[in-house]
Automatic annotation (TrEMBL):
InterPro entries: AAA+_ATPase, ABC_SmlMolc_Importer, ABC_transporter-like_ATP-bd, ABC_transporter-like_CS, Mo/tungstate-bd_C_term_dom, P-loop_NTPase, PotA-like, Transp-assoc_OB_typ2. The complex is composed of two ATP-binding proteins (PotA), two transmembrane proteins (PotB and PotC) and a solute-binding protein (PotD). One of its GO terms (biological process) is putrescine transport. It comes from the Bacteria. Pfam families: ABC_tran, TOBE_2. It comes from Fulvimarina endophytica. This is Spermidine/putrescine import ATP-binding protein PotA.
Length: 384
C-alpha cells in the first residue's frame, strides 16, 4: 500500500527534466589516474537533491573510485566536484557532508550495536546525552530499537546491514554513499531490503548514491541509473529510459537480455528500412530518429530487440521478420518462460513470454521446429 502511494508521488519527482533545477552534486571533467591509467575519465554528471542515484557497471568500470572521490578518500587528478554549491577540492573527508556505507559493514566486533553507531559521534566530541538520543533515533529508523546492547555477532546478516546503515545515517549527512549495500544478503532478504531502503531514503528526503553491479537492483531502487564503462558514464536515465532506449550497443547489452542482429542497411522505401543481417536474414524496420532514420544505404548497423518483443509459435507465422529454427533451450521461470531458438545459421534468438499469455508456446518441446517474429517497430537501430 505504501509502495503504491510512494510510487505515485515519485513519478512527479524528475528534477533532471527541469532546465531550471540546480544540481545538488556536480562532477566537472572529473579524472582520476592510477599508474598512468584513468579509472575515472573526464566524467561529467549532475545529481539532484533527494535523488536515489545508482552507479551501475561491470567490475573495474570505476564505480567505487567515483564514490571515493566524492567522499574525499581519493583526490582527483583533474576536474572537480561541487556539492551543495561548495567546491569540494581540498576539503578532507571528515568535513564533507557525506557518509559512506561499506559492503563489509566494517562493524567493530567487540562493541555493542549502540556503541558502534555512536562511535563517530563520540570522536566528534558530542555530549553523551545527545549521542544517546541520536543513537535511539537511528535504531528506530532501522527498526532495531531493542538491539542496542547486542554485539554484532548476535545479529543476523540483515540486522548487521541495518546497523551499518544506522551508523552511516547517525551523523545526518546530506548525501549517503552506498557501496554494494545489499551485496552480502541472500536473494529474498535482498529484495525485501531494497524496498525498505528506498522507503527510508524517501522518508529522510536525502540524496543516496549507490554502487551496484546488479542491474535488477539498480532498476528497482534508483530514480536514475548511470551506466559506467571504462571510467566514463555511458548513459544516464530513468530505469525505463535505460531499458527501452539504450543509446549504444554496450548499454543495450548490459541491461537485461537483448537480441542484437548485426547487418547492413540495404534498402529504404519511405520510412521502411531493410537491414540484411550478416547471416542473411532481412529485417524490416520502421525507421525514425531512434531507428536508423539518418543511415545511408550500405551503412553497417545493429538491430536490437528485447526477448519479450518476439512471438514464438510451433506453426509458421505470417508477416515481416519471421525466422525459424530449432527449440534449443526452454527455461520455465515461474512468471515467464524463456526460449532459445537456434536458427539454421546457428544464431541463437532469445524469446521470453509471460506464462499468462503463452498460447501455443506451451506446447513447445526441445528439438522441435518453431517460428519467431517481431514487428518492424519492436527494436532499436544502434550504431554497429
Ligand atoms: N588505489 C588504486 N590504485 C591503483 N589502481 C586502482 C586503485 N583503485 C582503483 N584502481 C583501478 O581503477 C579501476 C576502477 O576501479 P574501481 O574499483 O573504481 O572499479 P569498480 O567499478 O568499483 O569495480 P568493482 O565492481 O570490482 O568494485 C580498476 O582498473 C582498478 O584496478
Amino acid at each position: 500500500m505504501k509502495a503504491q502511494s510512494l510510487g505515485s508521488v515519485r513519478k512527479s519527482f524528475a528534477p533532471w527534466a527541469d532546465p531550471a533545477a540546480k544540481p545538488f552534486i556536480r562532477f566537472e571533467g572529473l579524472t582520476k589516474v592510477f599508474d598512468g591509467t584513468a579509472a575515472i575519465d573526464d566524467l561529467n554528471a549532475d545529481i539532484f537533491h533527494r535523488e536515489f542515484f545508482a552507479l551501475l557497471g561491470a567490475s573495474g568500470s570505476g564505480k567505487s573510485t567515483l564514490l571515493r572521490l566524492l567522499a574525499g578518500f581519493e583526490v582527483p587528478t583533474r576536474g572537480r566536484i561541487v556539492l551543495d554549491g561548495e567546491d569540494m577540492t581540498g576539503i578532507p573527508p571528515y568535513r564533507r557532508p557525506v557518509n559512506m556505507m561499506f559492503q563489509s559493514y566494517a562493524l567493530f566486533p567487540h562493541m555493542s550495536v549502540a556503541k558502534n553507531i555512536a562511535f563517530g559521534l563520540k570522536q566528534d566530541g558530542m555530549a553523551k546525552s545527545e549521542r544517546e538520543d541520536r543513537v535511539a533515533d537511528a535504531l528506530k529508523l532501522v527498526k532495531l530499537e531493542n538491539y542496542g546492547r547486542r554485539k554484532p555477532h548476535q545479529l543476523s546478516g540483515g540486522q548487521q546491514q541495518r546497523v551499518a546503515l544506522a551508523r552511516s545515517l547517525v551523523k545526518r549527512p546530506k548525501v549517503l554513499l552506498l557501496d554494494e549495500p545489499l551485496g552480502a544478503l541472500d536473494k529474498k532478504l535482498r529484495e525485501e531490503t531494497q524496498f525498505e531502503l528506498t522507503d527510508l531514503q524517501y522518508e529522510l528526503g536525502m540524496t543516496f548514491i549507490m554502487v551496484t553491479h546488479d542491474q535488477e537492483e539498480a532498476m528497482t531502487m534508483a530514480d536514475r541509473i548511470a551506466v559506467m564503462g571504462d571510467g566514463k558514464i555511458l548513459q544516464v536515465g530513468t530505469p525505463p529510459e535505460i531499458y527501452e532506449a539504450p543509446r549504444s550497443r554496450f548499454v543495450a547489452d548490459f541491461i537485461g537480455t537483448v537480441n542484437i542482429f548485426d547487418g547492413t542497411l540495404v534498402a529504404r522505401d519511405g520510412d521502411r528500412l531493410t537491414i540484411e543481417t550478416a547471416d542473411g536474414h532481412p529485417i524490416e524496420v520502421d525507421g525514425n530518429e531512434e531507428r536508423g532514420g539518418a543511415l545511408q544505404i550500405g551503412a553497417k548497423t545493429a538491430y536490437a530487440v528485447r526477448p519479450e518483443k518476439l512471438r514464438i509459435s510451433a506453426s509458421p507465422l505470417d508477416g515481416p521478420n519471421v525466422m525459424s529454427g530449432e527449440v534449443w533451450e526452454i527455461a520455465y521461470i515461474g512468471d515467464m518462460t524463456s526460449f532459445h531458438l537456434k536458427l539454421d545459421s546457428e544464431r541463437i534468438v532469445r524469446v521470453s513470454m509471460l506464462n499468462s499469455s503463452r498460447e501455443s508456446a506451451v506446447q513447445m518441446t526441445w528439438g522441435e521446429r518453431a517460428w519467431v517474429s517481431f514487428e518492424p517497430n519492436a527494436g532499436l537501430v544502434l550504431s554497429a
